[in-house]
Amino acid sequence: MNANQFLKALEQLRSWREYTFILALAERAFPNYALFADAVGMKGGAKVRQMLDQAWTMLEENSGDAQVTQMLARLEGLSPDPDAYDMYGVYPAHDFCRLFEQALLNRLNNTRSRALEAALWATDTVAQFIEMSEGEELDEDELVRLLDRHELMKLDKAFQREVLLEVKRQRVPVASFIATIREMAANDGVSNIGIAIDDAEPE
To answer: CATH code at 75?
Structure first.
C-alpha cells in the first residue's frame, strides 16, 4: 500500500471501522496526556483512562447519544489549554484530547469522515516532537531528511497502516479483535513520541 492508497483507504473508512482507527490513535497517544497531567498535578489521568476504557466497550455495546455527549463534555473539562502552560508537554497532551474527541464525535455522528484528519494530527504530533527535540538547529531540507528517516516517524507510519489493514479485513468488531487492536495501540505503555506510561502513574 503506497501513500496515496493509504490516504484513500482512510477516507473510505466508515462506521465502527473509522471509530476503531481513531480510537487506536488516541490510545497510542494516551501516555502523552497521562505524563503531562502527572507533571503539572492535574487529577485527570485516571479519569481519562476510565473514559478510554469505556470508549472501547462501545464497540461491543450500544451507547446512546446522551452517554457520548456526556463523555465529550467531561473530556473538554479535562483537556489542557496550551496557552496556559509554558512547557512543551502540553501540546502532545492536547493532541491526545483532540484525537479522543474525534473518536467520540464519530460515535455521535459518523456522517463526516474524520479518520484522515486524525491520522494527520497524530503524525504531526510526532513530527513536532522530533523537530523540538532534534531539529532546532536544522534548515528546512535537513529537517525534512530527519523526519523521513526518523525511527518514531517510521513506527507511527507502520502502526497506522497496520491498524487500517486490521479494521479493513475485519467483518465485525468481535471481542478478540477489539482486544488485539487495543493491545497493539497500547504498545506496552509507550506513546507515539516514545515516552512510557511507566514513568508516572495517573492520579
So the answer is: 1.20.1590.10
Residue 2 belongs to a domain: no
Rounded Cα distance, 120 and 140, in Å: 20
Domain of 130 in residue numbering reads as 7-199
Q: Report pLDDT for 199.
A: 54
Residues 109-123: pLDDT tens digits? 888 899 999 999 999
Q: pLDDT tens for residues 42-96? A: 888 889 999 999 999 999 887 778 999 999 999 999 999 999 999 999 999 999 9
- Residues linked to residue 196 through DSSP beta bridges, in sequence order: 190
Task: Tell how many helices (H) and how many strands (E) occur in the chain.
Answer: 9, 0
Q: From residue 146, how far is each of 32, 51, 119, 139, 174 by CA, in Å? A: 22, 36, 20, 10, 40
Structural domain total, the chain: 1
Q: Could you tell me the pTM of the whole model?
A: 0.94
State the Cα torsion 7-13-17-23 to the nearest 10°. 50
92 is a domain residue: yes
What are 186's three cell numbers? 497500547
